[in-house]
Design a protein that fits this description.
single chain, 142 residues, mainly alpha, 5 helices
């Protein structure tokens, strides 16, 4: 039981770290979209975005997945409806993460094609996913 609690704490810490990055990276893209290509600001944003993804977001996503799968297996939840729905939404969150990584590569290559408004709208996706995921985990409606 003590091991379970430690893995659960690790999972929560990883989720918080991942979500912080997944909310912050699109915000950086909003500001980066205003910076002139080749400017000092643009180059600074490139470094910030790369480090956020590589040092915080990617490891946090991996730990979230590993700890979450361990908890689901240990808790016997893998066949429960709420967990299956949550799992699908975490897959969607991971896909959004990969989409952000691709946009970061676009910025790094000076070929961003998405507007500030597009990034502002995209930033709503993880918010909606997070709300539904938390409700599924806490309420377990089915």
């Amino acid at each position: 039981m003590a091991g379970y609690e430690w893995i659960k704490a690790l999972h929560i810490i990883a989720v918080i770290s991942w979500m912080a990055g997944i909310f912050y990276l699109p915000r950086l893209f909003v500001y980066h979209s205003h910076a002139a290509v080749g400017s000092e600001a643009s180059e600074t944003f490139k470094v910030m975005e790369a480090k956020l993804l590589r040092i915080i977001m990617n490891p946090a996503m991996i730990v979230t997945w590993l700890a979450g799968l361990w908890l689901a297996w240990d808790g016997g939840w893998t066949q429960q409806g709420w967990f299956m729905a949550k799992f699908a939404l975490v897959v969607a969150m991971s896909a959004f993460h990969m989409w952000l990584a691709a946009r970061r590569r676009d910025f790094a290559a000076d070929r961003n094609r998405i507007s500030e408004r597009g990034y502002r709208l995209a930033n709503e996706i993880p918010t909606i996913l997070m709300i539904v995921i938390v409700v599924l985990v806490v309420v377990k409606p089915f």
